[in-house]
Amino acid sequence: MATKGEDDRPAEEAEAEADALAPLASPKGMERVRMEQISAGPVDFVARCVQGLFAGRFIYINRTAQGELFGSDRNSNAVTMYIENAGLSPSHAEIKFTAATCQYFLRDAGSTDGTWVRIRWNRSVEIAPGQEIRIGDSLIEVRQGPEISDADEVEQWLSTYQLERFQDLLKEKGFRSLSSVRERLLQELNAMLSAELCNEDYQSLEMAAKELDRMWPADAYPRYKLEFAVRPATGSTPTSGVTTTPTEGVPTAGDADLNRSLESIATVGWAGGTISLVPQGSAAEEKEVDDVLAGVHSINSKDSPVGQAPVTGWLRPEQLRIGYSFGRYYVHFSERSAESEQKGWVRLREDQSHWLMPQDLFSIGTLEFQVLRFNAASYSEQGFRATMEDEDILVQDLATSNWRQCSYFGIYDGHGGRDCVNFVRRRLHINIVAALHARGGLDKSAQVHQDMHESLMQGFLKTDQQFLSLAQGIVSSNSGSTAVVACIVGGWVWCANVGDSRALLCRNGKALQLSLDHKPSRADESQRIEEAGGFVSFHRVLGRLAVSRAFGDEEYKVGATKPIVQPLVIAEPEIRVEQLTPEDDFLFMACDGLFAVFSCQEAVDFLHSRLAAMPPNEQDPHRAVQDIVHEAIHERRSRDNVTALLVTFRRAVLKRP
User: Fold this and answer.
1) pLDDT tens across 635-652, in order?
2) Quick one: which of 44, 329, 500, 611 has the fewest CB in 10 Å?
3) Count of the separate structural domains present in the chain
4) Does some domain include residue 334?
5) Three-state DSSP class for 491?
């Protein structure tokens, strides 16, 4: 981003470039809707190979009744994705699309080496006895543990809700099994209210009792705990995410010699538990490598371990969380793995259909595929600058709803060093999601639009406050960052921006701006700065900073001196919203280094022509966005870092007449 001597054009010129500008969001004037009532938006998943012989290649998953069957049998009419030399079985894995619910499901199709799904931190994978979990180069076998007797059922049920304190009371009242709780508790709670229960306790027990039929369906829930046993793995597929020495031959659960070497590490019931994964070897790292991010971590009570597993092939410790819900056990990682490159995997059972979500990773043979909601890509070049201060992020699944897909894309342009831009990239989307959860979550909201607006606002402001607090003595107080982010919730695009990075929609071939640059020369921004006790000189705040809104920049905020009475630079975003239409081809986002040499319409025309020149179903956003960044720096001679991001909404952008 320019801080001195670059791109001092008046803001009016920049505004005039766009053919249209999306209106500022006014959620109170928008219809009050629930999540299931809003449009789903484009639903056309992509599987992109991210590791193996075909890395970088992608396919749009077949949505017909036939589905997509991966395999190595070239003579099979059932195989729709024939792949050779990749260790696949003749019929290896299958993906089916359910049109009524817009869901994709992955299952193993009788493969030899299995179909594996990567364990995530914000989505869970179902597990059951007989399955294997691969952590680094170690295998954890899931086995059926001790039976949960009638006497233990009530204790296990209460512990799931952290209501163990009522165990003696319920036992005294004759509730000695889950069936007795199911039959009588709701009817007898009122009588217990005044004598044994306060109102808060009553509500807690009532909620647990009302959920009983959903969470523990009669005769359809596991009446046993899970036992976890670990052994060193001898296979190399799927990968651990770190460099290790490959070996051969994945062991099976029935191997007698290996079963004798199993070491039980934990037993987990309905209340769930956490297994500490401890890397072994001299390369293991025991501390957080990011001191800034470590400053905002808090200890989670869920991380109190019930067992410990030694792991080879990993460098950093992790927590494997086991939970129970709706009659099944599930597994996921803790939040600290959000940006980890370490991989853990669950092998799907023969009868298991895994609900595929965007951002999921699955492994078959020597290949790994990432599931994408949108075919999207980003690209950056440092250009002629001495340092690189841009960042970007593509989160295909924010994991904030089961009703509608929610994705997040962002461009961050730092200045004065990388401390602020690194922090914003790591924390902004997390804080937005936290704000949504604090409001009850999108799936329970009766006013989705208002909750989205408020959560975006709170997420931006909280991220700035966190960084400014940490900046005191930890990081450089001179660093700052712009941000333009797009949250695509179902068929709605919510765009929030601070600074001069931009977001555009290509609608019917025309550029529709989703953001407006925050320049000190904008009349409203200049007025705000002057009313706060500052001034604008040479189109800059105090003659120095080229943007009027940004994260960080402590000297223009908490470090302000008289006669400055308010922060001159703020992190309050402007938020705009648009509903996607069939005329929308793509979303494009970039920092000011690109828009210094491209108008909005020029950028749209450039990308449209690049995509349309590729065959349908093979239009690669990575090639197109790489071309426009190269054009900006090497042909049009932008003097800044350039980072851009492209999200396509259709399989084929058609050539214009």
Assistant:
1) 999 999 999 999 999 999
2) 44
3) 3
4) no
5) coil
